[in-house]
């Protein structure tokens, strides 16, 4: 079994939030050398006021950071003191949030799910139920686990018969990354409706286990309260939420995670301390023997990340994984002009 994290471009943010981001500015910081990368890493890790939308890495030429109006001056002074070059790519991120299109799914009409806007959790869940009703021979509604607020992690299994190996797709573990569930539902729709022979072969050749929203509580919160909410919704002391993508029982807290509950990458009190990761991992274990590929969708950045993050030691099938990934990303590039980088987490974002 191997894991891939696919990062996609984020089309940002909504009008419903109680918490607004008026005059929050998005900075584009140009990285010139390793010293600047290291400086920005330490700033990210030491100051929770600055919201890094991507990681400062040597291979990347820039990093985007969201900053509140009251912290902007200080932020710019910090950058200037280290001769870090920056530009302001968005003066008021709330404008971008207000421009986001939120659509409503019409129950019983699977054609009312489209990919030119975002859908809330109940729309996505209703669509999953309707797919099962429309394709009863092929689609089964499945539950991957339970959330802190006692919601089901709802998904679907696409299967054209017994005895197939499996592919596992997961989206929305970081709730604010709305393009992730949208991408996963798009792929689901292609697998069920596209007549292209290659796509049909992929759809029919595997059992597909698909969970568009693996952090349902956080996803709802990002729609109804705070657009930039990333974690789950479990209270931890005076703070709320654990970064579910940092809570798995695999090299927990080794790299790229925080023990500070105030932070967005807070890893939780222990591995699998959260009901979402605990229950989803149990579901995974129940089908683990048949999984050939696991894709987790995030935003943003054009990267196809393969294991591992905690070490540069290659996984057993590193060359296969890298070749398959690079070919896939090459095909995307031909079609869409994207420039995805393929590599391990350790060599791509931890360096
Ligand atoms: Zn993410």
From TrEMBL:
Keywords: Carboxypeptidase, Disulfide bond, Hydrolase, Metal-binding, Metalloprotease, Protease, Signal, Zinc. Residues 117-351 form the Peptidase M14 domain. InterPro entries: M14A-like_propep, M14A_act_pep, Peptidase_M14. GO terms for biological process: proteolysis. SUPFAM superfamilies: Protease propeptides/inhibitors, Zn-dependent exopeptidases. One of its GO terms (cellular component) is extracellular space. PROSITE patterns: PEPTIDASE_M14. GO terms for molecular function: metallocarboxypeptidase activity; zinc ion binding. Gene3D superfamilies: Metallocarboxypeptidase-like (3.30.70.340), Zn peptidases (3.40.630.10). Belongs to the peptidase M14 family. This is Peptidase M14 domain-containing protein. The lineage of its organism: Eukaryota, Metazoa, Ecdysozoa, Arthropoda, Hexapoda.
């Amino acid at each position: 079994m191997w894991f891939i994290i696919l990062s996609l471009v984020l089309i940002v943010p909504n009008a419903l939030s109680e918490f607004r981001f008026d005059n929050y500015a998005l900075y584009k910081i140009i990285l010139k050398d390793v010293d600047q990368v290291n400086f920005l890493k330490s700033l990210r890790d030491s100051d929770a006021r600055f919201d890094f939308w991507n990681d400062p890495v040597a291979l990347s030429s820039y990093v985007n950071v969201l900053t509140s109006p009251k912290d902007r001056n200080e932020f710019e002074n910090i950058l200037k003191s280290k001769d870090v070059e920056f530009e302001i790519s968005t003066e008021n991120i709330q404008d971008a949030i207000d421009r986001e299109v939120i659509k409503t799914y019409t129950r019983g009409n699977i054609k009312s799910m489209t990919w030119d806007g975002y859908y809330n959790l109940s729309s996505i869940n209703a669509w999953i139920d309707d797919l099962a009703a429309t394709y009863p021979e092929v689609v089964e509604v499945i539950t991957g686990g339970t959330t802190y607020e006692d919601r089901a992690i709802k998904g679907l299994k696409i299967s054209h018969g017994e005895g197939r190996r499996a592919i596992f797709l997961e989206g929305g573990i970081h709730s604010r990354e709305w393009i992730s569930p949208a991408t996963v539902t798009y792929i689901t729709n292609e697998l069920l409706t596209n007549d292209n022979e290659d796509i049909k072969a992929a759809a029919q050749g595997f059992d597909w286990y698909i969970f568009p929203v693996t952090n349902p509580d956080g996803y709802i919160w990002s729609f109804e309260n705070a657009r930039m909410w990333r974690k789950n919704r479990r209270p931890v002391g005076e703070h709320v939420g654990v970064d579910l993508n940092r809570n798995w029982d695999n090299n927990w807290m080794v790299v790229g995670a925080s023990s500070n509950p105030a932070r967005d990458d807070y890893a939780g009190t222990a591995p699998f301390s959260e009901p979402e990761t605990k229950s989803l991992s149990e579901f995974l274990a129940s089908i683990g023997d048949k999984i050939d590929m696991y894709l987790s969708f995030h935003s943003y950045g054009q990267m196809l990340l393969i294991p591992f993050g905690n070490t540069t030691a290659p996984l057993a099938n590193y060359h296969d994984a890298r070749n398959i990934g690079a070919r896939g990303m090459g095909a995307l590039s031909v079609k869409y002009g994207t420039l995805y980088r393929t590599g391990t987490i350790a060599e791509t974002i931890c360096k």
